[in-house]
């Protein structure tokens, strides 16, 4: 049982090496639903802790008693292939539409053999929204929703692809479109060798989930290579003209391999999605005016991000960046995420170039806008996990408490039904020795953060 001691609980291992048949787990996401359920999302890295290319599944655990007890691991998304040849569903982010109750989980899918750096430019779909697949000679085909395949002239072929990507030709097994090229001896068709932004949803508080929904046709440009989620959590806007908008942070790479962040958003409860511009669009950096599409300047990359909305309707996005200043960057939007101002570096937020977590605390009616921020606070390495509290919307950070003195990497915050704050974070790892990660869960109170 998880009990608060002196207003902070002992951390428990929520996901650990070998649990439920997975070598290790990485990249936490977490929300508290309107029913008070905690949903903790994670990558199940089945045989190896590395990023994709790798066999990576999307899984969750749920708690209905504020983290005292937890359900079993639920596997939500799994693609074909094994080990480092396997396809991936990686880097989750969660949010709930409080008006409909629908829970959304965003993630990146890549086929076998493909990760951030190997992703090719392209959307992966034709002009009608059908998935593009290719034969061994590079011939292009369209995969229709019913599984049938046509050539580029629209003529029927003998190919059929089922929901799991398995290909048959005249009824004979002929590979799987999600596999790494050359793995299957009867290989015929493969999907595009790029990254796919996908989303799933649950309408029953996370008990069951939809099949993946493709977002590339709506939010990815043909010149983009990689595209992925924040990761961590998204938000639903509560203020100004954009009330009800669903917003997820994402990032992507351009033909030069340089990365920029932005958000995607929906104004119709997830039926359709649009992409905002990036803080790198129009940014002045080292005497240059940048564009996310043509960016080539070293140090200008803006990658994994998390965002909050302030009571005045302003959005603030907190950015992992590669400027070498070892500080978290912050950019502001005043139009619901459609455009962003030039990033500034918060000198009070030291950062070893790692993802961080940020969220607002519910209004207590005392005129203070409380913001919580968690990250590894050592600018040299991923240690010294720290939670910070601002009472003025992130302008200053008056309070800080150390969560874990030792290893601490990606993390995600949520506020529980009873007002406690929970943190899910990566711990007990050694990247240099490929030592598997333990993902820990702890909770604490506002009073504990602000106590001396």
Automatic annotation (TrEMBL):
<dbReference type="InterPro" id="IPR023364">
    <property type="entry name" value="Trans_sialidase_dom3"/>
</dbReference>
<comment type="similarity">
    <text>Belongs to the glycosyl hydrolase 33 family.</text>
</comment>
<dbReference type="Pfam" id="PF13088">
    <property type="entry name" value="BNR_2"/>
</dbReference>
<feature type="domain" description="Sialidase">
    <location>
        <begin position="194"/>
        <end position="421"/>
    </location>
</feature>
<dbReference type="InterPro" id="IPR026856">
    <property type="entry name" value="Sialidase_fam"/>
</dbReference>
<protein>
    <recommendedName>
        <fullName>exo-alpha-sialidase</fullName>
        <ecNumber>3.2.1.18</ecNumber>
    </recommendedName>
</protein>
<dbReference type="InterPro" id="IPR011040">
    <property type="entry name" value="Sialidase"/>
</dbReference>
<dbReference type="InterPro" id="IPR036278">
    <property type="entry name" value="Sialidase_sf"/>
</dbReference>
């Amino acid at each position: 049982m998880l009990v608060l001691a002196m207003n902070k609980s002992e951390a428990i291992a929520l996901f650990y090496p070998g649990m439920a048949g997975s070598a290790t787990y990485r990249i936490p996401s977490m929300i508290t639903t309107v029913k008070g359920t905690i949903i903790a999302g994670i990558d199940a890295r089945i045989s190896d802790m590395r990023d994709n290319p790798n066999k990576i599944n999307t899984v969750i655990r749920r708690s209905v008693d504020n983290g005292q007890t937890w359900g079993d691991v639920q596997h939500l998304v799994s693609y074909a292939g094994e080990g480092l040849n396997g396809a991936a569903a990686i880097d989750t982010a969660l949010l709930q539409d409080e008006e409909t109750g629908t829970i959304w989980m965003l993630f990146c899918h890549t086929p076998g053999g493909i990760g951030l750096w190997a992703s090719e430019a392209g959307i992966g779909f034709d002009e009608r929204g059908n998935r593009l697949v290719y034969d061994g000679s590079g011939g292009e085909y369209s995969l229709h929703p019913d599984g049938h395949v046509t050539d580029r002239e629209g003529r029927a072929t003998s190919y059929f692809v089922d929901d799991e990507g398995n290909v048959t030709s005249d009824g004979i097994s002929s590979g799987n479109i999600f596999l790494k090229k050359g793995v299957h001896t009867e290989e015929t068709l493969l999907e595009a060798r790029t990254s796919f932004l996908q989303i799933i949803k649950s309408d029953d508080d996370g008990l069951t989930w939809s099949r993946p929904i493709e977002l590339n046709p709506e939010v990815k440009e043909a010149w983009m290579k990689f595209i992925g989620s924040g990761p961590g959590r998204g938000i639903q806007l509560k203020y100004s003209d954009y009330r009800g908008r669903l917003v997820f942070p994402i990032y992507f790479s351009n033909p030069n391999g340089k990365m920029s962040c932005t958000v995607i958003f929906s104004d119709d409860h997830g039926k359709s999605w649009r992409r905002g511009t990036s803080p790198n669009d129009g940014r002045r950096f080292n005497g240059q005016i940048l564009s996310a599409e043509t960016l080539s300047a070293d140090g200008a990359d803006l990658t994994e991000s998390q965002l909050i909305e302030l009571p005045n309707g302003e959005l603030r996005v907190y950015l992992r960046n590669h400027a070498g200043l070892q500080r978290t960057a912050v950019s502001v939007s005043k139009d619901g995420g459609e455009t962003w101002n030039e990033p500034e570096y918060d000198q009070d937020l030291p950062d070893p170039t790692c993802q961080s977590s940020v969220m607002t605390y519910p209004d207590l009616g005392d005129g203070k806008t409380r913001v919580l921020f968690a990250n590894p606070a050592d600018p040299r390495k991923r240690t010294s996990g720290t939670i910070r509290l601002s009472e003025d919307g992130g302008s200053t950070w008056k309070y800080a408490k150390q969560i874990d003195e030792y290893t601490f990497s990606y993390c995600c915050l949520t506020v529980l039904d009873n007002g406690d704050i929970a943190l899910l974070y990566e711990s007990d790892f050694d990247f240099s020795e490929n030592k598997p990660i333990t993902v820990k869960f702890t909770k604490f109170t506002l009073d504990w953060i602000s106590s001396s």
